Amino acid sequence: MSKRPWPFLLGGLLVALLLAGVASNYASSHPDGLDSSLLKGCTVDAEGEITGGSCPAQQTKDHELGDSPLADYGVRGVTNGFLSTGLSGVIGVLLTFALGGGLFWLARRRGPAAGTPAGPAGGSPEAAGGDPTGAAAEDAARIR
């Protein structure tokens, strides 16, 4: 495995940023399966408003974070819809990348602690499946 994962990581980040910033604007604006199933039994007008009938969608409430800066796949304050959607995708990718990178950085493997004998795998002999008592080395010394 390569010792330098940076080209792969940066390439993946670039692809994710392009998809989030550009391709997200071409996603379908029609309701997905969940939204569609919640509207069964109701009559809906051209704007998507319920005009009659009875369905689970009538019980919906506004989300607690509905007024957050990135609500509804856009950035609050940006009036251009194409730019707002793309920018929210880019911000989401960067936040996710930073959070994931930070977690991987915290959980990364570190070398053996100071004062720990290094075994064949770079850790302690016990971690490598070795003999913790050193009896095998003593037996080999007695045989000579």
Structure description:
Helix content is 40%, strand content 5%. With 144 residues, it is mainly alpha-helical. The chain has a two-stranded antiparallel sheet. The protein is elongated and about 90 Å long. The relative contact order is 0.08.
**Helix-strand sequence:** HHEEHH
Low-confidence stretches: none
What's the average pLDDT? Answer: 81
* Percent range of helical residues: 40-55%
Strands in their spatial order, largest beta sheet: 1-2
Report the β-strand fraction as a percent range: under 5%
- Separate helix tally: 4
Please state the structural category: mainly alpha
How many E strands?
Answer: 2
Distance between the termini: 40 Å
Largest sheet: 2 strands, antiparallel
- Shape descriptor reads elongated
Radius of gyration over C-alpha positions, nearest whole angstrom: 28 Å
Features:
144 residues, two-stranded antiparallel sheet, elongated, 5% strand, 40% helix
Topology:
Layout: H1 6-21, H2 33-38, E1 42-44, E2 50-53, H3 81-107, H4 135-143
Antiparallel strand pairs: 1-2
Helix pairs in contact: 1-3
Structure described in brief:
With 144 residues, the chain is mainly alpha-helical. Helix content is 40%, strand content 5%.
